[in-house]
Design goal:
About 4% of the residues have low confidence. It is built from ten helices and no strands. It is 67% helix and 0% strand.
Length: 205
């Protein structure tokens, strides 16, 4: 497992009763099933309640709003993805050479951001990527660049790698500009290799 510190997606979770945790999981599972069958637009608080076999008030008490429900689904997805990075099989998880891990990390983040683009929008402000989620991606990217011996301002170089795989940019390229995803993957890998192969100047790490 990586030895670098990784920040949690939504901070330390507050203690939750086992029955409350089960109810929350059941509601999220119900919402996930609805997304798979009906798409994001088909997911309402009423529909989730019916799918889970509870009253609508239960869903509102747990998530407060549809945006809050979407944000919880997004956090759940982020936590699962983070777990794969931290302890899943290589090359995304530990055990592969750092360059392989970096390329796998970028490809996986692209796929995740595109897959959840509708969910990110539906979550609105409630689902805006939290600082903890951003810090996780940034910290892991900086760690891998350090493992690869990259010099210069690693913090800014990491941002240069992260920016092209953000959801809004990917959607613009794939859905509006009709750029093939394989071309984006190749371009991102080329950028990563240029950063790694360019010695640069000594700077902050």
């Amino acid at each position: 497992m990586s030895s670098h510190p990784l920040l949690p997606i939504i901070g330390e979770p507050r203690p939750e009763r086992s029955d409350a945790a089960r109810n929350r999981a059941a509601l999220l599972e119900a919402a996930t099933r609805l997304i798979e069958h009906c798409g994001i637009e088909g997911v309402t608080m009423e529909a989730v309640a019916a799918e889970a076999g509870v009253g609508k008030g239960t869903v509102f008490r747990r998530f407060h709003s549809r945006e809050g429900l979407m944000a919880a689904l997004l956090d759940h997805s982020e936590a699962d993805w983070q777990a794969q990075v931290m302890g899943g099989p290589p090359p995304l998880g530990p055990g592969a050479p750092p360059m392989e891990r970096l390329l796998a990390f970028g490809n996986s983040r692209m796929e995740t951001n595109l897959r959840h683009a509708d969910l990110i929008r539906a979550a609105g402000r409630a689902g805006a990527r939290s600082y903890a989620a951003y810090s996780f991606v940034a910290t892991h990217t900086r760690y891998l660049l350090g493992e690869l011996g990259v010099r210069g301002d690693i913090a800014l170089l990491a941002i240069a790698l992260m920016a092209p795989i953000e959801s809004s940019i990917l959607e613009q390229q794939v859905k509006i500009e009709q750029i093939d995803l394989d071309r984006i993957r190749s371009g991102w890998a080329d950028l990563a290799r240029r950063i790694v192969e360019n010695p640069g100047d000594e700077g902050e790490r």
